[in-house]
Amino acid sequence: MASDTPESLMTLCTDFCLRNLDGTLGYLLDKETLRLHPDIFLPSEICDRLVNEYVELVNTACTFEPHESFFSLFSDPRSTRLTRIHLREDLVQDQDLEAIRKQDLVELYLTNCEKLSAKSLQTLRSFSHTLVSLSLFGCANIFYEEENPGGCEDECLVNPTCQVLVKDFTFEGFSRLRFLNLGRMIDGVPVESLLRPLNSLAALDLSGIQTSDAAFLTQWKDSLVSLVLYNMDLSDDHIRVIVQLHKLRHLDISRDRLSSYYKFKLTRKVLSLFVQKLGNLMSLDISGHMILENCSISKMDEEAGQTSIEPSKSSIMPFRALKRPLQFLGLFETSLCRLTHIPAYKVSGDKNEEQVLNAIEAYTEHRPEITSRAINLLFDIARIERCNQLLRALKLVITALKCHKYDKNIQVTGSAALFYLTNSEYRSEQSVKLRRQVIQVVLNGMESYQEVTVQRNCCLTLCNFSIPEELEFQYRRVNELLLSILNPTRQDESIQRIAVHLCNALVCQVDNDHKEAVGKMGFVVTMLKLIQKKLLDKICDQVMEFSWSALWNITDETPDNCEMFLNFNGMKLFLDCLKEFPEKQELHRNMLGLLGNVAEVKELRPQLMTSQFISVFSNLLESKADGIEVSYNACGVLSHIMFDGPEAWGVCEPQREEVEERMWAAIQSWDINSRRNINYRSFEPILRLLPQGISPVSQHWATWALYNLVSVYPDKYCPLLVREGGMPLLRDVIKMATARQETKEMARPPPVREALRLAPAPQRTDVKVADGRSVGVIAGPETSVPIVLSSWAQERLKDATCRKEPCWQ
Predict the structure, then answer these.
(1) pLDDT reported for residue 660
(2) Which listed residue, of 207, 382, 619, 684, carries a Cα 20 to 30 Å from 254's Cα?
(3) Global pTM value
């Protein structure tokens, strides 16, 4: 199981300072610019961590607001020291690098910083005397500067400035630079002249850069230990140059197999050359290559003996000449990864879980196109088989989703994989901390990527968690996201169906303060709009039924939400639904349950006192829908109205006595041993109907309800009855002259006397939804699988397990 070790003090302090910059490290100058307090000095270990954690928060925590002048805190090296920083995405602009230009940086990683322009090239010169490692991966515009086009009037109409490629910049003066990444640099940059001044490069990444002449690489044949040429269209000339780099320990000539412009085909001869000429090689990546010749041994020889990584037994013939097994061999999306004897300790491929996880680990940061396909393979493994390295798989998927939150393919495959990696089968292996990380990355995906499949997958993944317990640390945020999904203007029914499920769960097991807060966020209004839309379409589906169910839950003991329901034409919708869908039993139960909550609020009951409403409630007393539930709830509504006395009966028809008679008849028709589709967390609304003589029928309904519940569910409800002071009230009923004899008989429930032991009372009201209904389809880019949630009407809503069925689209 993953560890729940608390975060280090350094981590907690760093996070707190970054979220409270102007109250801890700095102060606001002119209400805008951050300045470091003059009495603070921070060493490089703390400064580096502050900057790197800040970048992480900006890119992964959607609730974190970046500060425009954050980097100005580190402008003075006399009070702050920066040495190793990793910046990424659009967070970083030219002025940010300019703010720290006086720092003696040793390591600077700029990844996909597309807002950087040629101004930052000049800033880089400020670090030339100290910089050892530099990455400009994906900084596509850093070699462009803006120039007034002068006479280019037509172009100015479209773009007021023209971007001009800078060709005169070189790394002259970067004497200490050893590690350089120029991956995905734009075409046209003169790579050879750019790099020529560097005398002692040890590592070079030219991913995605096309150069027909690679001879310039030989100037580092005595120093270069790592060379990455991912997605470079190679030729025999390139191979001749590569094998001269005899110090190489890591060589990556892999490519994306879906790209069609590659002419070069890998041969047995080339692999043999690598083994013969590059004697120090420890890591080789040839992923995505089509092998032109058969490099494997015979099938009979391969199947003989146990799996081995010894070069002498290699199934790949050229690798039998290796002096030792490779530390890493990249074979993802090649036929070689499926061979038995591969001479490497770690192999990326698509043969099994280990190879797939190795691929995700190796390619996540810089190759999202490869990573998404590897995660899709993991999705299939988790869906069809069993994931044996669960914790590693979860952490890798979380990292990929954080790193590429705007990449559609990764968001789709990653969210789909998370659904299967977090289901109840794996729950015991996951720590609270890890599951919280999953929740956060899921919510990030929902906020950052408004794509139907991603939204659906994320919602289904949330169904795997104990609700609301595991979501409470993000309670407001998740409710806001779900309410936005439930906006009736959105037409995707499958997402709405799942979102209503989640909303129902979130409001059914929380205290009244939470319910009121969610009501103010627009929960009640959103549900009513959904119901109204369904009415217009004349459709009574799960969304309709679950919306009423959610309203039933959120109005439980929350007068403000009950009032909101009435103020936004809730009663009209109730009558319209009753008329339009007379045979929908579960719908009727949910609606009457909600109106029972409204009727419990004394100040709101006058709004129910109309001839139309009273007639409807009276007619529903004879309903046999859903057992006794509709009739029971209708009687409950009328019991509270009757409790206000004859003087409050403000309608001529139907008459109070007539309604009373129908209530008595209904109660007498119910089976006292009926099993119920309702759960009480408190008996207070029922108990208040006992000590009174104004309405004997209300008293009788309350007594019947208590007798039924403690008789059928003694372990659950006897302790609650005792805890809330129900026993003295029932004894008083027995002594009351106004109480009917049958009421007095029911006030002596045997189970109460037998089960007076104190036990934890039920704390929450459950979600009222049907069992075993399909609520969504979890989808990767190449497959879709319908999900059926198990019963949501358990005592505690936990572990929403799922049944999977194949579905081909």
Answers:
(1) 94
(2) 382
(3) 0.85
